[in-house]
Design brief:
By secondary structure, this protein is of the alpha+beta class. It is about 40% helix and about 20% strand. The chain has a five-stranded mixed β-sheet with strand order 5-6-1-7-8. The termini are far apart.
């Protein structure tokens, strides 16, 4: 067996409620209180997020969009704006980082925290959870559900039960009693096939599973899965919160409702992606040496091409020029379903200043790049004050705007 549950309840699991849809409702007051479904709007689209107003109609994530339209035809159907969700996610994660450095981000909308070290300043974990929910609401306009428990598994389960817009604390010493009446489907690792096997041997609640001899469970499910589920049923989950390590890459990609079939259409999307990625680089004070272009064709064949630059950069035009050249190796007429741009081999922004002597032509090119970099930094300042859409590349502005 593992180390067993901790004697306190310092683990928090924070999950933003219906995140993509909530951001859309935040940005467009006309959508508030109405069903909102975010996802691919084309024939092959799937639901990314459904607002809580849409869920009573049976709409859920990963559902084909055609089925969602049939189930809830009066909903607002919105294409994802990943750049905006990333912005709001970063705002939330900054709040969490001010509470404790022990933040393990799982995705754009959820994270684990270990708040044991914050107790002296902020009070017991349940008070910290309430503070976090209040700050997220006040500072970002979003709602978050939070689970508080002695283990990661139980904190995440508590969040699921607290949704939407709730807080659930499982006190130390009451974990086994809390878990006992819950269905075994609540355990991590119990999918439809495993659930069928458990029901065949008469196990329907977590308490019944916890009371079973481990050897019998391992015989029914196999040693690894049997031991795993028996441990979770007894709240034996010693995994610590592991803070996020330095980013190894920064990227963005877009799946299109209809395949792109011309170079001009592809280049327009590359402008958007390069701008998004380099804005994130500058915000993180990073520069890149390697730029990668990802292409997925309509038949789902996926290919990548990469190029290493002569010096690190965070300049959008440099990254854009690179991915345009990499695009030469692909035939858009095949139909391109997805494009992605990513930057790796990251350095601190200061690395861009360590340039060696130039010849005249290289020096002139470097001066042009520096001027462009200054413009992009000024654009970042404007966007910081007035929003991302305040300044956009000219090719992304619609003719009637």
């Amino acid at each position: 067996m593992g180390a067993g549950p901790r004697v306190d309840t310092p683990i928090l699991h924070v999950d933003l409620d219906a995140f993509f849809a909530a951001v859309e409702q935040l940005d467009d007051p006309r959508l508030r209180g109405k069903p909102v479904i975010v996802g691919g709007l084309g024939n092959r689209g799937v639901v990314s997020t459904a607002s809580y107003e849409a869920r009573p109609y049976g709409v859920h994530s990963a559902m084909p969009m055609a089925r969602a339209r049939h189930a809830c035809p009066h909903a607002a159907f919105v294409s994802p704006r990943m750049w905006r969700y990333t912005e709001k996610s970063e705002d939330v994660m900054a709040i969490l980082g001010e509470v404790t450095p022990l933040v393990e981000q799982l995705s754009v909308d959820e994270a684990f925290l270990d708040v044991a070290g914050a107790r002296r300043l902020l009070g017991p974990p349940v008070d910290v959870a309430a503070l976090i929910r209040r700050r997220i609401q006040d500072e970002t306009g979003l709602t978050a559900s939070v689970g508080v428990a002695s283990t990661k598994f139980l904190a995440k389960l508590a969040t699921e039960l607290a949704k939407p817009d709730g807080l659930l604390h499982v006190p130390a010493g009451e974990e086994r009693a809390f878990l006992a009446p819950l269905p075994v489907s609540r355990l991590w690792g119990v999918g439809p096939a495993t659930l069928h096997k458990l029901e065949r041997i008469g196990l329907r609640t977590i308490g019944e599973l916890a009371a079973l001899e481990p050897q019998l469970l391992e015989h029914a499910l196999g040693p690894s899965l049997g031991a795993h589920l028996h441990a979770l049923a007894r709240n034996d989950d010693p995994r610590p919160v592991v803070p996020e390590h330095d980013a190894k890459s920064v990227g963005a990609e877009e799946t299109f409702g209809a395949d792109l079939r011309t170079r001009s259409a592809c280049e327009r999307e590359l402008v958007r992606l390069a701008d998004r990625v380099c804005t994130r680089l500058r915000r993180a004070h990073l520069s890149t040496r390697t730029v990668t272009l990802k292409v997925r064709f309509g038949d789902f064949e996926t290919r990548t091409r990469a190029r290493t630059l002569s010096e690190p950069t965070d300049v959008s035009t440099v990254v854009l020029e690179t991915v345009r050249e990499l695009l030469d190796e692909f035939d858009p007429s095949r139909g391109i379903r997805l494009l992605g741009v990513s930057c790796s081999h990251l350095h601190g922004a200061a690395a861009m200043q360590s340039t060696l002597a130039f010849d005249d032509e290289t020096a002139a090119q470097h001066e042009r790049t520096e001027r462009r970099a200054a413009v992009e930094r000024a654009v970042d300042d404007v966007r910081e004050r007035f929003g991302v859409r305040a300044v956009r590349p000219a090719t992304l502005v619609e003719p009637d705007q």
